[in-house]
Specification:
531 residues, single chain, alpha/beta, seven-stranded mixed beta sheet, 19% strand
Length: 531
């Protein structure tokens, strides 16, 4: 048995942030990771000689504004960021020879959009102005523990009550409605809608517009940065920061149970039989179904929580195709040659049809893609004149079999060839990551779901991961959920880990006993069920 102040299960970004915060506070921390290497869904590898491939996440707009990562000062631990000339572009039909892009200067983006549809340039600049006005209190609301207090108060002070209510309505809009209220032309609309599709909420679902708003404005504001040398450089810098603070990292040994005694989490047990005793806290950077469904014994999970989490909904499965290309991509739309991220394969109406396929169980004949030109964003990724690239798309909900993944991956190749004739003949390396591969490499990516659970409104805020479980604290004293299954959800920002570590520290403070009692009683009250 090893005895420490806190055990962190998992070494993804949330786990590494949590461990760093606790170690900085003087706690002895053990990070226990199932995989041979740390990093969770932030890892890269040389799948093809001379080409660096990001295996999971690749672009990091949320990291650029994350308070959790900012506090780690990762630039002092080897991390360097790089940007493509253009953050993002959107190619609609294959014959689209003039795809809209987000340029570094908002005035240039606006001028291009206005040339396509008069008035959209002014609308774009107005949206950017609104973003800068609300950015600080809005991000504070997004990233703070639930329920947020300081952020909404800041928004009311900044905007006034009436405009704060108008902003709340705006953020609740379906993405399609938001795009149509903001812009008159298709080019500006698809820039927002393509970004909205980074989440799995249908474009006509309430609340689906908020992701489009955030990512579009981040693309215009701070861009879509990538770590120089590969995504693994980000996790390496986070590991270096955590271990320098004193955290100990143990890899290659899966945690199989959280040990509970007298209603308190007292440690974990691993597959190899090693036990870690936790004097103060256990923070779980694992999915909510895994924590409450397998790591905790049934007697420690209430019937209400079990029933609620039986309805937990995963986001749609991902199929990812990685490419090594012996030349730059011959896009029909030359604008896209300088875009790091390319959204491709559907216009405004097409996105609705594509999501309908995913909802009704049909393999899309022409999938909507997120495409990354990694060498364009970071020249260190492959030899000069070549491109390290990837594409990812989704399978319908509940369809995760390898044959379906193969079919969709072939359709990805076909779509890329249609948008860039000669693409296929430039391939010198190709590697498909199916849902089964993604889950095997990271147990949190269940069935190829990369968001830690659906981002739809019914599983966000106080409903994440289930009704009444919107905070990181659980009904078990000393046990905290610090993963993408917890508020604020998916994306590489580390905030779920920060919130969990902060809650653990506060429960050990002068009024910790009162916090523990109040949180436990409130959680038990709202998760109690008569059904």
């Amino acid at each position: 048995m090893r005895s420490v102040d806190a055990v962190v299960i998992g070494s993804g970004p949330n786990g590494l942030v949590a461990a760093t915060v606790l170690a900085d506070a003087g706690w002895d921390v053990a990070i226990v990771e199932a995989q041979p290497d740390p990093g969770g869904a932030i890892r890269s590898a040389e799948l093809f000689p001379g080409f660096v491939t990001d295996l999971f996440s690749a672009f990091y707009p949320l990291a650029a504004v994350s308070p959790a990562l900012a506090a780690m000062n990762l630039d002092q631990h080897g991390l360097e960021w790089s940007h493509a000339p253009y953050a993002v572009g959107h190619a609609r039909e294959p014959q689209d020879a003039d795809a809209p892009v987000v340029r570094p200067d908002p005035r240039d983006t606006a001028a291009d959009l206005d040339a396509r549809h008069r008035g959209d340039g002014r609308a774009w600049l107005d949206l950017v102005e609104r973003w800068h006005l609300v950015k600080e209190p809005f991000l504070q609301s997004l990233f703070g523990p639930f329920p947020p207090v300081k952020g909404p108060v800041g928004l009311v002070r900044t905007l006034g009550t009436g405009d704060a209510l108008r902003l709340a309505r705006f953020l609740a809009l379906p993405a399609r409605r938001m795009a149509h209220e903001l812009f008159g032309g298709d080019a500006a609309r698809v820039l927002l809608l393509g970004n909205a599709m980074h989440a799995d909420a249908p474009p006509d679902a309430p609340g689906s517009g908020v992701m489009g708003f955030i990512l579009t404005m981040l693309a215009q504001d701070s861009g879509y940065p990538v770590p120089v040398g590969g995504s693994g450089a980000l996790s390496e810098s986070m590991v270096h920061r955590a271990t320098l603070a004193g955290a100990q990292l143990y890899c290659g040994d899966e945690v199989v149970s959280v040990d509970v005694r007298h209603g308190r989490a007292v440690g974990v047990t691993t597959a190899s039989g090693v036990r870690f005793h936790a004097r103060h806290a256990v923070i779980a950077d694992v999915s909510a179904p895994s924590l409450f469904g397998s790591l905790l014994a049934a007697e420690h999970v209430s019937a209400g929580i079990r029933r609620d989490l039986s309805a937990f909904e995963w986001d749609t499965p991902v199929v990812k195709v990685n490419y090594a290309l012996d030349r730059k991509i011959p896009w029909r739309s030359t604008n896209l040659s300088e875009a790091g991220t390319v959204h491709m394969g559907a216009d405004d109406d097409g996105l609705v049809h594509w999501m309908a396929d995913l909802t009704t169980g049909r393999l899309p004949a022409s999938p909507f893609l997120l495409f990354g030109q990694m060498t364009t964003a970071d020249p260190a990724r492959s030899p000069e004149g070549t491109e390290s690239a990837w594409a990812y798309t989704h399978l319908p909900r509940g369809i995760t079999d390898d044959d379906s993944a193969r079919v969709v991956a072939e359709r990805v190749d076909q779509l890329l060839e249609a948008h860039a004739p000669g693409f296929v003949e430039s391939i010198v390396g190709r590697h498909v990551q199916r849902p089964s591969d993604l889950e095997a490499a990271n147990a949190n990516l269940v069935g190829g779901a990369v968001n830690g659970g659906t981002a739809q409104l019914h599983q966000q805020l106080l409903f994440r991961p289930g009704p009444g479980l919107g905070r990181t604290e659980t009904t078990i004293d000393g046990l905290f959920l610090g993963s993408a299954s917890a508020h604020p959800g998916g994306g590489v920002h580390g905030v779920s880990g920060l919130n969990a570590a902060t809650a653990a520290l506060r429960q050990r403070g002068p009024l910790g006993w009162l916090r523990r009692r109040a949180t436990t009683q409130l959680t038990e009250l709202v998760t109690r069920s008569r059904y």
